[in-house]
Amino acid sequence: MIKVGFPAPVFTLKNQDDKPICLNDYQGKYVLLIFYPRDNGLVCTPQLCNYRDNWEAFQQRNIMVLGLNPSSAISHRRFTGKFKFPFPLLVDENRTVAAMYEAISILGLPARAYVLINPQGTVIYSDKELTLLTRQSTYKLMSIFDALQAEREAQQL
After folding, report:
1. Which terminus of the chain is more solvent-facing, meaning fewer CB atoms within 10 Å of its CB: N or C?
2. pLDDT in tens, the chain (157 residues)
């Protein structure tokens, strides 16, 4: 995974509506990149639904969520339409962005991974699941974010 403290590589990908989304569109906000293997997957669906159901926790912390995987815009559009995700799903067709963030499994398949970027564009958290069957809940991600915030505030004192 990309190392904490490094600048987040900037990218532009199309979302489920074929609209280009650039990481720089979210300057001044925290951005959580969620790399996941596939739309409608047995683990992916409840994972993203958990984030949808707890969307307010992300909003309260000024965190924008971007889901990324190699599925097509049509697949993302159907997946988003079916489950009403409030965040964009981006088409990383050739796994280019996943490679930039080192979010690819040892077999070259999309990994389930998380990268949190601060408003200045620096990676402040990155993690990759050891298996495709595990995932981090909103509660776990918010606990990590809150601990990072507390640490940052303590350093400023």
Report:
1. C
2. 999 999 999 999 999 999 999 999 999 999 999 999 999 999 999 999 999 999 999 999 999 999 999 999 999 999 999 999 999 999 999 999 999 999 998 888 889 999 999 999 999 999 999 766 678 888 899 999 999 988 988 887 7
Which residue segment(s) compose the domain that 21 sits in? 12-156
Tell whether 95 is covered by a domain: yes
Task: Confirm if 113 and 101 have CB atoms less than 8 A apart.
Answer: yes
Catalytic-role residue among 8, 21, 32, 44: 44
Residues 6+ apart with CB under 8 A from 116: 30, 31, 32, 33, 63, 123, 124, 125, 126, 141, 144, 145, 148
From the list 104, 77, 98, the residue with the least C-alpha distance to 19 is: 77
Active-site residue 44, yes or no? yes
Block residue for tokens 């199309």: 14
Quick count: other Cβ atoms within 10 Å of Cβ 75? Answer: 17
Report how many domains make up the chain. 1
